[in-house]
Every structure is written in structure tokens, then in C-alpha cells.
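U., I forgot to send this yesterday:
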Amino acid sequence: MGLDLERIFPASGPVVLCILDGVGLGRPDDGNAVHVARTPNLDRLLQSQVACPLKAHGSAVGLPSEKDIGNSEVGHNAIGAGTIVEQGASLVQRGLANETAFTSEVWRGLVQSQCVHLIGLLSDGNVHSHVEHLHALIQRAYQDGVRQLRVHILTDGRDVSERSALEYLEPLEALLTRCSVDGRVFCVASGGGRMHITMDRYDADWSMVERGWQCHVHGEGEAFPSATDAISTLYAREARWNDQWLPAFVVVDDQGEPVGRIEDGDGVLLFNFRGDRALEISRAFEGRPVGFDRKDRPDVYYAGMMQYDGDEGIPANYLISPPAIEETLSHYLLAHNQRIFATSETQKFGHVTYFFNGNRSGYIDASYERYQEIPSDVIPFEKAPDMKAMEITRAACEAIVSNAFDHIRLNLANGDMVGHTGDFLATVRALEVVDQCVGLLERATIEAGGTMIVTADHGNAEEMFQLDRKKGHYKLDVNGKRQVSTAHSVNPVPFVLLDPKKQWSLADVENPGIANLGSTLIHLAGFQPPKLMLPSLLQRNGG
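Result:
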């Protein structure tokens, strides 16, 4: 890799990147938790002359269309790469459309198994998966002569509306019924909410994966005659349950036996394309070390929609090659002996390391890097909206004033993780804690003689209710109440530069997005940004 950079002025103090996860710029009204929260530090910084909105969704982060919401994975990829990288959703869409996914040895291995099992998130959120991808897989399996196919659904309610599972399930069950002819059996076999089973990340809660394993593999869960009956019954039973938190269920036959246990000789495809919440269940199927007893792991042919970790080769079999990000911000800084510190809590630790570094695990150069993970609490986020923001901030402040690091980056997860619960008051509290942290980071940066960028990877907390963008008002339910939104948004995110020495002003950049941050951070470190990155958002005062 050609990583040479021209030094254009001496560095003066550390460069700090503070990512406020899920904090976008939305309508200034009472549906915007960022607006309602008391945030004097952010309010003051946003009045800076060196501030502007940045795009963080759609084509600005390598997603297929402007309707596609941003997310933490693609956001951190874009910031770290400093350029727009075609992402998993787009790569999978093309691979299925041009059928290259179906001409591979991996697909042949799956369809030649005695029963094909498809596991994944059932929605069109296009963050972890897309229901159209699932339909394409089912239709091709039918075309290729598969006789037995089972779908194990994970209900969303996070990247889409809270209780929208039946909107995706009904067409899916209709398609499976159409394929169940001439002795073939295609059906839904099991399911449950994405935040209750299967989709844990960063080893935060292996009990989630264990519940999913027992449900999908061994058919353990409450029994129902169909998935539609399961979800309808669970909705009626507990009004507080949204799709994220539905308990595990299994579909059974007339004799009460699960219709889709996973057994020796079967093929299993995880059709999610995003890596963070796919790694642990993949480890379980591939026989790698996991945090629970697998109880007679079946011998199956396992594959992922994509490879979720290229360094560890997880999974070994996959349909679509992941995006290649060779030269990241970290690579450039390390090539010039810049000392790096990165920290967050468990929920977002992989984002400031793995995703930020181009989907690579571990250190790039351990002699110049230090990563500090703050363990997340395993409790509902709305019950403890402070999360670990203060602990992360203390770790970052110590690194800033230590004179031991040139580049410090951190992620405060509260706006995203608490925003996803749909609890407005808890989200307001979360943002007030984040604002206190910004104030502490500001003081540490000034003390160290450095500069700090405050930004976000995507929006969320600024739009806590479903907005009808055409009509310009919030959607109402049958009782006239606003419909809660637990999804990310397509709103822009803030860019603010804390520049105590008044050395910088905004450059004239067309359609600025978060991918412009890579070159901006290199610029602040005193180097001429590389041509392959998008231009810097800044220009140095005085030339």
C-alpha cells in the first residue's frame, strides 16, 4: 500500500474524534429527544462557525438508494475509510440479481443438503438484511430442486416499525406455500425477537445466542401451529412487547413435533449481510469456542450471506465477498508513527476498532495502538440510560491529557442504544449524560492543546416518532397517539470542530458526508490528505 503523506505543518496537540452514536439533526420539536434534552455544551458548540451538517445515509455511505437509512457499521466504515465504500446491502443486491451468488460452490453445497435452513432478520430495514434477499433465496432454492426448506425468522422492530413483523411474514408464508408442491415442504420453523435471541454482538450476552440456538436447532420454545399465529398471540398477550423482544417460538405439526429442527446433513445459511450480530451464531455453527453448551451440535454445511470477519475467516463458506477496504485512516496514521487510542463500551467497541479499521479484527500495529473496551451492562438500556458514557469519557480524557497519543477516538453509544428502545424520557436522559461527557472532553482537549471533532455515525434519537415526510407530521395510531420510531433516520448528523487556537475554517466541499471525515482527521494531524480519500472539510487559516 502507498501510505506516504506529505507533512504540511507541525502537529500541535492530540486530535480527538468524538462520535455521538445515533445523534442526528432533526426537526426542533417535541418529538426530537436531542432538542428536548438539556445539552448546553452541544448547543454552544453547534453555534461555532466551524460546523456543518453531514450526510450519513444512502449513497453517502455506500448504500443502494437515498431511502436507505445509515447505520453504525457503514458509518464507521465510511469515517475510517475516508471514502465511500460499496456496502453489503448493495453487494448482495447485485450478487443475487446477476445470479453470481447462485453459481458458487457454496450455493451448490447448500442446495445439495437434505434440508436447507435460512436464518435471519425478517424486514426491509436493509441494515442487517432485506426481505427481498430472502425471497430471492427461496425462489432460487425451489428452482434448483430443493425439496425441504425451513426459515427461522428474527423479528425486527428496530430498523423498521415496532410491530411490523406480520407485514413481512404474510407474503413470506404465501411464497412458502406456493413452493410447497409435489411433495416439497417449505415453511417457517422458528422465530423470536432480534434482541431476545440469536443476534448478540461483541460477546455482550451469550445467553441470547444460546436461546436462539436451542430454538432454531433443537426446536425449544413455545409451540404454535404457524408463525403468524405465534406473533399474533404474543402481541395480544403482552402489549409492551414489540418485535425486538418477542420470546422464542417454534412451529409444530399436528403431532406437536417441531417442523424444523436442524439435523446432521442439513445446510444452514445465515442470510444477514452485516457482520457484528452474525459472528457469534456463526461461531456456534462452525464449532468454534462459544459461551454456552451447544448440546449435540449437528454436523451441517454452514454458510453466511457474506464473510463477517475476514481476519478470523468467519464463516469459512459465504455467498458474497465483503467490501474490500485496504487503506484506512488508521493505516495512514500508523505509517507515520501516529499513536492511536480507541475506546467505547462493549456495544460499540467493534465500531471504533473492527469497522473503523476496514473490517479487521485486532490491532494493525500494536506498538502504536491501544484499545480500551469498557464492559457494557447486560440490562435494558432504558433502565440505565447513562450506560457507560462517563467511564468511556474518563478513559478518553486520560488519553487526551497523557501526551501519549496523537489520535484519540471514542464512541458514546447512548443516543443509539437508548433511542432504539423507543423510550423518549430515557433517551432524553441519555443525551443529557452525553452532553456532560462532551463538556469534559472539551476541557481535556483544551488542556492538552489539541483539537476535537464532534460528529455522529447516523441519526436516531432526534426522530423518536414515525414521521410522514410528505405530509410533514408524525404518524398517529388508531388511538390518535404518535407512533414510536425505534429505527435510525435519514437525517444529517452534526460536524463541529473544537479549535481553541482558531487555526481552521470550513472548506467549500460539495455534498459533505461523514466519509469526508477521514481526510479531515489526517489534515488536523498536519498531513496533506491522500487523493484517494474524499476532500477535507477544513482549510487552514492563513493558507
